Amino acid sequence: MNVMDTRATSAMLYLDGVHVSFDGFHAINNLSLALEPGEMRAIIGPNGAGKTTMMDIITGKTKPDEGTVLFDGVTDLTRLDETRIAELGIGRKFQKPTVFESQTVQDNLLLALNVDHSVKGTLFWRGSKAESERIDKVLETIRLTDARNRLAGSLSHGQKQWLEIGMLLAQDPKLLLVDEPVAGMTDVETHLTAELLKEINKTHTIMVVEHDMTFVRELGVKVTCLHEGTVLAEGTIDQVSSNERVIEVYLGR
Amino acid sequence: MTPHMLTRSLDRGAAIFLAVVAACGILIPLSNLLLPAGSFLQVPTYLVALWGKYVCYAILALAIDLIWGYCGILSLGHGAFFALGGYAMGMYLMRQIGTRGVYGNPILPDFMVFLNYSKLPWTWYGFDMFWFAALMVLLVPGLLAFCFGWLAFRSRVTGVYLSIITQAMTYALLLAFFRNDFGFGGNNGLTDFKDILGFNVQAEGTRAALFALSCLALIASFLICRTVVSSKLGKVLIAIRDAESRSRFLGYRVESYKLFVFTLSACMAGVAGALYVPQVGIINPSEFAPGNSIEAVIWVAVGGRGTLVGAALGAIVVNYAKTFFTSGVLAPYWLFMLGALFILVTLLLPKGIVGTFNAWRDQSKEKRSALTTVSAAAEDGVTEPKMAE
Amino acid sequence: MLSNLSARLCSFVLSLFLIAFALPAFAGPFEDAVAKFANDDYSDTEEAIGTVASSGNKLAFPIISALQDGRLMADPDSKKVYVTGTDGKSIDAATGEAVASVPDSASAVRLNNRLRRSVDAALGSLTLQSPDLGARLQAAQSVFKSREETALEPVESALAKETNKSVKTALGEARAAILLFKSDATEVQKLEAVATIKARGDQDALALLSDIGTDQPASVTKAAASAIGSIQSSLAVWSTVQNAWYGLSLGSVLLLAAIGLAITFGVMGVINMAHGEMVMIGAYTTFVVQEVIRTRYPALFDYSLLIAVPLAFLVAGAIGMLIERSIIRFLYGRPLETLLATWGLSLVLQQAVRTMFGPTNREVGNPSWMSGAFELGQITITYNRLWILCFTLAVFAILLAMLRYSAIGLEMRAVTQNRRMAASMGIATSRVDALTFGLGSGIAGIAGVALSQIDNVSPNLGQSYIIDSFMVVVFGGVGNLWGTLVGAFTLGIANKFLEPVAGAVLGKIAILVLIILFIQKRPRGLFALKGRAVEA
Amino acid sequence: MPTKSIHDIAASFSRRGVLAATAGLMLGLASISGAKAADDTIKVGVLHSLSGTMAISETTLKDTILFLIDEQNKKGGVLGKKLEAVVVDPASNWPLFAEKARELITKDKVSVVFGCWTSVSRKSVLPVFKELNNILFYPVQYEGEESERNVFYTGAAPNQQAIPAVDYLMKEEKVKRWVLAGTDYVYPRTTNKILEAYLKSKGVAQEDIMINYTPFGHSDWQTIVADIKKFGSAGKKTAVVSTINGDANVPFYKELGNQGIKAKDIPVVAFSVGEEELAGIDTKPLVGHLAAWNYFESIKTPANEKFIKDWQAYTKNPKRTTNDPMEAHVIGFNMWIKAVEKVKSTDPDKVIDALPGIEAPNLTGGVSKMLPNHHITKPVFIGEIKGNGQFDVVWKTPGLVAGDAWSKELDGSKDLIGDWVGKKCGNFNTKTNKCLGSGS
């Protein structure tokens, strides 16, 4: 394909030599990472390792001091703002579940739908059959069909996590960034979430940040361990968890 | 505005509100004009003018509720847009005076004559035509709001920072309009109007018509607000209010939304000001005072933020209280009462009058439905696990 | 020492002789002149001053100084004039004889500004050789201003005897001023005079040199013109320094007004619209303190502010704590609603003060150490502004130290940074909230003490500072005391450099527009916290 | 897609709430309109701000009218009826002034209104008084350029205050250089314009006049005082003519005192500084600065001494000061009583026609007369500030000065006169012999 010629990399997401510091504190330090299309990657690492800051950089919330961040091999993300990046097809789930609490579950999904997001488009928006079918489908996927008319604020913690994942699905991005999807979930919920992510991965590229090693193990994907803003180890979960440095700084002996 | 948007925006509560406003807008002027003065049901002209003022305030309150209640933009400078609309109308009314000014100058308003202006400043060109003035009523506040908003929202100035700079904006305008060199009448402002579109502003018929027109404007503003907030755009606004950065990550251009609604709101405030001026007979820089804008926000809070009807109601209730308290034996204590009202409403009715009423109604409704609904599973959180297909 | 004593003795004997001689004599020009004081006519009074001052009579000094202080009493009916001493004893001004009492019909001889200048000039030449250093200096300065030719001789003789350096300079300048305008002075004398005045280099010198007129020798006119040029250019430099000083002083007022808000708003997040009223309460506390001192302990007046500072802190702090406990604490986490409630509160407080103290201004006096000014180079520094600057910096330093090093300061920081964590570590958060709000209010109260020295003490006092205070805090960056400091001084100095160019109103508008634009550039103020935590 | 749920957030509405509130509102408003008018008293409206920024000046005037009504009622009222004051608080809010004026006239049916301080408040109520045909007595010195049928101006016009003061400074103090400092609003602007024209006609050069405007409530006077000092050091005798308004005066005088500007060096003559304003300052450093008024508390006449005594007794405050606008109210009130007694009616039309020509003694020993232009004759006094916050009269006009509604010094108004007796016109152009604009 001719497109290949203009691409600097085949990776869906490509970070190279990224630095960022806040008031002298180096949050991200020479971080390099590549995510292939269709891949699911788990990111682990101790608190303060720079996981969330990395997501902030990818989604345009934080601008790196230096380094390259390429999406789909062509787009330099460091020059774009959040909205533009979202429009390109990068979706994000926050560490703390962030849904629109004073709106219904269904409206949350409606807002997330990947349709015209301009002022004019929303002002003159009319619901279509295709849209409501999409929403029904997502509701089913995240098991919130019964709660469709409830306010998102009244959902339980786990349901909010799912709703947020559901919003990602509705958004239908090329790349999903999922920050601690199972924090505060029961074992059953954790398991279901893993299944859900695997299901989603069939059609999407995913980057998951998680502390829960059981969950990461269940995902069974390539793992990257971050420490002090840089990559400490990369490989299968077994490779990484047997790495001396990883054990020292993160897993503990 | 397409018909489906209108019908969608109307539920029964809104319809009743509109009916009440429309009834007032028709019956009060009729009663004032047709019934004999002094009869029990006749509304005296004094009250028509007073109510007209309240209605204009209600439009301003709606404008504030649209941005504050639905989009979380707390503007402490909305009085500026109101005043600018008022000035645009006032300038038209000044130009209408013509040779009837005290100096009889056909072109220059009186204050320019005694400040030795030799010719009309360019800022006053065109204001002798009503259509131009009417355009300016929308355009000047709208343009200011657009420029201000474009700067502020693009740089993501939010929360209290935004509130404070809106206050700085209205304060700067206050100082500017106070300056006689600015060419808008300085502290005395614009006054001593004669007629509007050829009708004497002081005639009872004109007053009644202005009142009816204000009610019409209130209805129109309300419909616009309802249309906006009940469209998908309204949901986006609420989304921005509740979780701004989430909205960005969903791909909404937050600054465009804010800019749209802020500009719309400013235009509405401008219309309110334009209707206000011929009814009270004066426009003066004190309308720019930051205190006025804060007070307008308080009307919305008293009535109920994010309810539209509440905003309009709050404006009327607070101003009625002000009228009532500033006369008679209560006059020396009215600030105590007004102050206490603000404190008590924030403490005891954080959702405002209408908001509290709604909450109470929803609660009783929920109780009733809870008795009949068996299924409570959804409320407890996790349902029986089912595999996604 | 000895010669001084003998000189005084001599003059005493001489004056005894004079009085003894004058007593039986007929009414001379001196007596006639004195009688003119009783005419209650400004021209007559002026004439009388001239005659009395140049009479050489021993009574001249007591009469003229009594006139200056309003102690010269005249009876319009009997045309008799009396000098009431500072000790309450009176003498007949014409004869010097003691009188038992001044008749009731007598009233103080009235002065207007023209006469006050004549009095100054007359006293100037009479006190040029006074034993009191301050009086001599003042005398020399008033001669400089009046430049009466008749004073030339006394100035020269005083100059010959004078030993003090600064008085000597002043006398030299006075002499130069007289010579410059003396028509029969030589060209050399005049050129010397121009040089002396040029050396003085201030605005008075400028005034004098610009006023020399056209009937001077060409060389003098030329010298004067070049002197004017050099004084003006040095004054231009000084005026920059002066603007900077005014800016610092305005900045200190802004800082003082804003510093309490930096705590209640900046640290606690309460949009405290009643902040200005706390300042007002502090000012009224000062008024009450002074009122008590005036009626009960007048001797303590100079200490009134020192007494008022802790009291204002306590009063405003207590009211602040009361407000926090009764209103604010229900509104944490709803910052915009604190705005509404505190706005209502400010209305109530204003009206309460209006009801208690009346709507008009109340007089708060300046203690002597807060009055007047001194010259630093060519700029005038007023004591009240200087003290306010020092006071503000002291308050700032104490506050900073308190927050940083004291236990309560630590608790305050802990609670404002992470309430839940602080609570779980055993800090009584509600007590800390009340104390923090009380601290902010108390500091606003002591700001009121200082502001009462330069502004109206009226129920509207707070209103005039509230917007400026918010601008300062927001400009500096919410939650950062240093930001407030830098913000206040930046705005103060910018304002004072803009004011001469744009005028007071446009200058202020420009500042507001600059703040609006600045916030676009740095949406979280000058000293914003960075990083992830901020937006959480 | 069910659309009903979409409304859930936005559509938080209350039908009954709206109905109930609207009904309550209607009832409440109806109760305002249905106020009963008592026939056994004559109602006098008092329209002075009791709160807000102007309360500082206007509250005293409200008390003055209450005091005068009390005194009059002790004498048996007027036309056999007692007077009744109707006090409202327009709260320093200009549109509220208009609203309250309308309320006083329509609802309370007052026969006359005493009120307003600022020009803008007068301008705001003017259309109301014209429309509803009632009488306003306006007691404050103002910029002139107005003569309305329904308004009687008992304060000074510019020719009754500013020009005599400047004359005094030129003659007595030999002032050659002038600083015209004022707050930026109409009164100072107009007064300074008149003074500028007047000074130039007296041969003062443009470079010897400095004009400076400051915003309301200006409190940092360092720069301006320094500028004045600099301007005053040009070798010519300099004076400041101050039209600085109310609140800004205290910091201005404090700064003057502190920077050591003595009255004998650069005297300041003020038109808005009276006993009330000085009550807030230690006046010792200000001794010798001047003010021009038509009345001073310190003027020793039997009428004034009695007035002060009664006033202090009425307010139960032995230190309560009096001032010029109070005296204006005293004169205006007495004129109104006389006019009412003359026509034996409180009907505004009759009283308006009767008022010109009515005379009433002022408190300084003269008799003021209402002129056809609705201004009055007044003496002009120049007072020097004394150490005790009072003024010492240093100069006064030989007789009473008639107030000019229209300034002779301004181009726009030099040919205008107000004459409500002969010409029935407030702005009659004597050149064209025409009544201009809205007049009549």
From TrEMBL, chain A:
Domain called ABC transporter: residue spans: 13-253
GO MF terms held by the record: ATP binding
Keywords: ATP-binding, Nucleotide-binding, Transport
Residues that span the membrane, as ranges: none
PROSITE patterns the record matches: ABC_TRANSPORTER_2
Cross-referenced InterPro entries: AAA+_ATPase, ABC_AA/LPS_Transport, ABC_transporter-like_ATP-bd, ABC_transptr_urea_ATP-bd_UrtD, BCA_ABC_TP_C, P-loop_NTPase
CDD domains xref list: ABC_Mj1267_LivG_branched
Free-text function comment from the UniProt entry: Involved in beta-(1-->2)glucan export. Transmembrane domains (TMD) form a pore in the inner membrane and the ATP-binding domain (NBD) is responsible for energy generation.
Protein name (Swiss-Prot/TrEMBL): Urea ABC transporter ATP-binding protein UrtD
Organism, as annotated: Bradyrhizobium campsiandrae
TrEMBL record, chain B:
Domain of life: Bacteria
Membrane topology type: Multi-pass membrane protein
Record keyword Transmembrane helix present: yes
Localization (cell): Cell membrane
Sorted UniProt keywords: Cell membrane, Membrane, Transmembrane, Transmembrane helix
Keyword match Ligase: no
Protein name, per record: Urea ABC transporter permease subunit UrtC
TrEMBL record, chain C:
Organism the protein comes from: Bradyrhizobium campsiandrae
Topology in membrane: Multi-pass membrane protein
Keyword annotations from UniProtKB, A to Z: Amino-acid transport, Cell membrane, Membrane, Signal, Transmembrane, Transmembrane helix, Transport
Protein name: Urea ABC transporter permease subunit UrtB
Compartments, as annotated in UniProt: Cell membrane
Membrane-spanning parts: 244-271, 303-323, 335-353, 386-407, 428-450, 470-494, 501-519
The family this protein is said to belong to: Belongs to the binding-protein-dependent transport system permease family. LivHM subfamily.
Domain of life: Bacteria
SUPFAM superfamilies per UniProt: ARM repeat
Signal peptide (from-to): 1-27
TrEMBL record, chain D:
Leader sequence residues: none
Pfam families documented for this protein: Peripla_BP_5
Recorded superkingdom: Bacteria
InterPro entries linked to this entry: ABC_urea-bd_UrtA, Peripla_BP_I, TAT_signal
Protein name: Urea ABC transporter substrate-binding protein
Native source organism of the sequence: Bradyrhizobium campsiandrae
Phylogenetic classification of the source organism: Bacteria, Pseudomonadati, Pseudomonadota, Alphaproteobacteria, Hyphomicrobiales
